[in-house]
Amino acid sequence: MKTLSIATTTLLLTLAACNDDLKTGAPVPEGRSATAMLRTAAGADAGRATATEVADGIRITVDASNIPAGTHGTHVHTTGRCDAPDFTTAGGHWNPTERKHGTMNPQGPHQGDLPNMIVGTDGRGTIALTVPGATLASLLDADGAAMVVHAAADDLKTDPSGNSGGRIACGVFQPA
């Protein structure tokens, strides 16, 4: 009987500890995700981006289509709006850590700075990476966030946007 009582007490204390994490605003559990359906300024489908919470940050995957062949800067932007024709309503790069632009900038990068995407003659391109330290809760804050594909390659160092040109596709992240 004493063994049963100790086991029951241990179980109840463990459950209470788990419940406390939910009340304190703990990070979103691993595996939760958000999706952004990319569209061109003309409204054509341009693929999708997925952000998934993982143990060390957010795993972002972009599967683009209907994009001109070449190298394109890709970034997460601060605001979940994609008003055509220029998508400037998406704001600047997502930068909750207040760093400078670019992975080649010693004071960077923004959390929204992603690698350049190489698009083939079939109009398709893919990138995938983990943004260390990022959280889905931060990405999906009150004004949301958007994935943007730019017209040109990002030089990975020039603040604020890497000279990556105009915005040619955009999608607003929505919880999955």
TrEMBL record:
Molecular function terms from GO: copper ion binding
Annotated Pfam families: Sod_Cu
Classification via SUPFAM superfamilies: Cu,Zn superoxide dismutase-like (SSF49329)
PROSITE patterns: PROKAR_LIPOPROTEIN
Superkingdom, natural source: Bacteria
Domain Superoxide dismutase copper/zinc binding: 47-172
Cross-referenced CDD domains: Cu-Zn_Superoxide_Dismutase (cd00305)
InterPro entries, A to Z: SOD-like_Cu/Zn_dom_sf, SOD_Cu/Zn_/chaperone, SOD_Cu_Zn_dom
Name of the protein in question: Superoxide dismutase family protein
